[in-house]
Automatic annotation (TrEMBL):
Transmembrane spans: none
Domain CTD kinase subunit gamma Ctk3 C-terminal residue range list: 246-307
GO molecular function: cyclin-dependent protein serine/threonine kinase regulator activity
Gene name as annotated: TPHA0C04760
This protein's name: CTD kinase subunit gamma Ctk3 C-terminal domain-containing protein
InterPro entries, per the entry: Ctk3, Ctk3_C
Organism of this sequence: Tetrapisispora phaffii (strain ATCC 24235 / CBS 4417 / NBRC 1672 / NRRL Y-8282 / UCD 70-5) (Yeast)
GO biological process: mRNA 3'-end processing; positive regulation of DNA-templated transcription, elongation; positive regulation of transcription by RNA polymerase I; positive regulation of translational fidelity
Length: 315
């Protein structure tokens, strides 16, 4: 697979994250990575029946194409709506988790993956968070809580570069946004310096910069809440509303993800519930039922409605 083909396939993976997010979230390195075919090929055909594992694709192909993948990830993410970029952050975090597991449990021969983990992925966290929470864009703060949670996870994987006390202070600042004075908060949005930290593998600096960025966005959220409560103009918010097509796009992503989940969870196996009627029993009861609805019928309908609602519940 040459560089051009690798880029095209990885872009396809990134654009399909909304459909594969449930697979990514349920990934368990201890149970899934053992079955990785690290030298094998990945089926990336266009058929709808061939599901591509986004994590295995990256882990399998990153040795030769990690630079292409990294550039594609940032270029593709920058073209997304800021609310949709959270899927990329979750994917990024899971890649770090998987590579960390492989490196820690390897007896040798994975030096390239150690390099990718430490000097590429971890060293670029600040740049990724700048895309997750761009300046002068209030709506991106909707994802702030999840961004903080993912930062905590990655910090633990990296060996707690940021101390527990600093993490605690950041969380406390986020949780009491509605009661803390915002008079000392700068209206200027913090921007990650355009430096190449990854050239020296200085991922500690990347984590420190990300912490500064998150604290700044927590302050901007606090300022927004207080000014909104006081019905004052909001100087740090760009004017304009989300485009209708963005809303429709997010609704379509949710619908597609829900459809994928229902393929595995919508049905009840008959052999586990003998009280279920067979098709013939149902037809017989239906034919012998009068056309009038009684209180008992309505209660039964409500019970069936509740059961159907439960069958659509997802994680």
């Amino acid at each position: 697979m040459d560089s051009f083909e690798a880029r095209l396939k990885f872009i396809q993976v990134l654009k399909s994250l909304s459909k594969t997010l449930n697979t990514i979230l349920t990934y368990a390195p201890g149970s899934n990575s053992d079955s990785f075919n690290l030298s094998g090929s990945i089926n990336m055909s266009g058929s709808k029946t061939a599901a591509v594992d986004p994590i295995q694709f990256y882990v399998t192909c990153c040795d030769e194409h990690y630079e292409d993948f990294q550039q594609c990830l940032f270029d593709t993410t920058s073209k997304m709506d800021s609310l949709d970029r959270l899927n990329v952050l979750i994917y990024y975090c899971k890649l770090i988790e998987m590579l960390k597991y492989l490196v820690d449990n390897s007896t040798g021969g994975l030096e390239s993956k150690k390099h990718i983990l430490n000097k590429v992925l971890l060293a670029s966290i600040d740049k990724l968070y700048m895309l997750m929470l761009p300046g002068n864009e209030i709506k991106s703060l909707v994802n702030l809580n999840e961004c903080i949670n993912r930062f905590v996870d990655m910090n633990q994987l990296a060996g707690n570069i940021i101390s527990d006390e600093e993490m605690k202070q950041m969380r406390q600042a986020f949780q009491r946004h509605s009661s803390t004075s915002a008079t000392q908060i700068s209206e200027a949005w913090y921007t990650v310096p355009d430096t190449e930290a990854d050239t020296a593998g200085d991922y500690e600096k990347s984590f420190r910069t990300t912490l500064t960025l998150l604290n700044d966005r927590i302050g901007k959220q606090r300022l927004f809440y207080q000014q909104f409560a006081n019905s004052e103009p909001i100087p740090c918010q760009e004017q304009g509303t989300a485009a209708t097509q963005i809303t429709l796009h997010r609704m379509e992503n949710d619908r597609e993800r829900h459809k994928k989940l229902k393929e595995h969870s919508w049905f009840i196996k008959r052999d586990t519930d003998r009280s279920m009627l067979s098709a013939n029993e149902f037809e017989k009861l239906w034919d012998n039922t009068t056309g009038e609805l009684t209180i008992e019928d309505l209660n039964n309908m409500q019970e069936l409605h509740d059961i159907s609602q439960q069958s659509y519940l997802t994680m």
